[in-house]
Amino acid sequence: MTQPTAPDSILGFITGPSVSFFFMHSVLNLFGNDVRGRFANSWVLTFGPYIHANRNDLQRQFMDTGRDWLLSVDNDIVFTPGDVYALYDEADKRGPGIYHGSYILENGFQVCGVWNDEEPFVYHNLVKLPEKPTEIGVVGMGFTLVHREVFEATGPNAFWPVNGFNSGEDLSFSWRAREAGYTPILVPAVNVGHQKINTLYTSGQMRNSIGDDMNLVELDPELKELNRELMEEVKS
Question: Please, what is the Cα angle at 136 between 181 and 194, to 5 degrees?
Answer without folding.
Answer: 125
